Amino acid sequence: MPPSAPDTGLEIAEEQQSCCPAPAEPQTDEVELSPAVHAFLKALASPVRQRIMLLFARGTELSVGQVAELADLGQPRASEQLAELRRGGILTSRKEGKVVLYRADKKATAAALADLQSYLKYCC
């Protein structure tokens, strides 16, 4: 009688492969976050920007100088934060003479939230 081969566990693995199909790999390329949602999440990531966002409740329009004063920031920093919120679709702006006025962009915010919700429903 020939000596038996050492038990390597391969036999069990081979049996499992032949009897049970492997689970399908999830298709990660089917649903991805859009660049707009990435920008939206980045805009929300900062506590300073979160604080600034609250200044725009109820349709308030504010200039950079007003935001700087209300948020206790220097004007350059306020301007940077407003630009990030604008890139994220949270704020929109319009020019009135030489002054740029910012306000909440509810439509873009709602769209980003809907995209994020769809993504989360798919993945989680």
UniProtKB/TrEMBL annotation:
Residues 29-124 form the HTH arsR-type domain. Residues 1-27 are annotated as: Disordered. CDD domains: HTH_ARSR. InterPro entries: ArsR-like_HTH (IPR011991), HTH_ArsR_DNA-bd_dom (IPR001845), Metal_resp_trans_reg (IPR051011), WH-like_DNA-bd_sf (IPR036388), WH_DNA-bd_sf (IPR036390). Pfam families: HTH_20. Keywords: DNA-binding, Transcription, Transcription regulation. The keyword Transcription regulation applies. SMART domains: HTH_ARSR. It comes from Nonomuraea mangrovi. This is ArsR/SmtB family transcription factor. PROSITE patterns: HTH_ARSR_2.
